[in-house]
């Protein structure tokens, strides 16, 4: 009897050891501490290098204004989704403190990075995951947008989570929690940018269908459906249908189709938040060198994975990175570096695996010469990223202070809430001034001339004219003022007529 009991206990211990050592089912604590340290460093770096005092940018204003009670909501165009607005609502709905919002988003993005990398435990060694996370987190675009109310970084983290959990469940069907991770990653991506979520998940859907993995397919489909439900509902409520909204989104983005934007993306790597139109000289080659190294390291990672007979866990993130990048490299006529964040996040893990293969032999010993060269290259890469980040932060800080100064001057001219601002950069200036914004044409058209004139009979209205521009016809007789390099036309106070000759104080 004693022997039988001992045998049962020994068998149980063997099962526990076998399960714990299985590559598809890592222990819950494996690699958690290094990933947590990395996430903490990433969070602190955002707060130190980007600084919470950085004012809200144009796109941020659109997203934040949807949920705040302190400012009128800006026009919300067809390509946008409500995910970012939901993300910032816990803070922006009751506080107008930009610093508090920055801290909140930095903490949240640090947590998101930890959870996304945590999903890959057991698929790659901890050192590979930490290196991958450090590479992605050290990119200037990741640090810059981490504490900002923008969608692309959250698509990137959702993609990492979904692909990692997909591979975990594919390796071990008893890992039911991984199914929830797949669904959660798909929900996050679709909430932020539904079309991006579809592009990222194409390889996952194909693999799930080909292998008849119905649970994986169901988790992906359910996640995408839940995340995109609100966006699709808006399409039918406001645009006449899903096809009509997609067509309007395509129009706003310049018409989607075969267009080469590789050179545009290269130009944007120098710190340009939006490259539209994307003209000017290319950045210095040292700024773009890492971009060309990525595909080479990805190929090396694939070769290593095939030789080690673990191709799927490398091929799948590479495939998802490719489909995520495809529309922004070959189907759109402009560029922004944040568009490729999902691709960078997915490439990071195979690339990190390739780097470790270069610096260490299969026996685990270091290759001193290669390791030294790799360390120098990574140090140079980090220096370049920090330099670009510093210049980008400084430039954006100045631009946003200019908007705030313009808003202050408008207040001095009597344009105070409730009020309406139209014309050049109306959306950001109006937000800083506490006014509504309006446009009678272009991608942000949300009003008519008759509505603007009717509003001017009730509240202050101003039209901004950029350098070299001309005022719209309805504002030509309004008194003209100069604020920096802007010309400002302010409608006469309700009940007053425009003074004769008000528009004759100089060329526009």
From TrEMBL:
Entry keywords, A to Z: Membrane, Transmembrane, Transmembrane helix
Listed transmembrane segments: 31-50, 103-120, 126-147, 154-171, 177-210, 217-239, 289-308, 315-336, 371-390
**Keyword match DNA damage:** no
The domain of life for this entry's organism is Bacteria
Q: What is this protein called?
A: Integral membrane protein
Q: Tell me what organism the protein belongs to.
A: Streptomyces prasinus
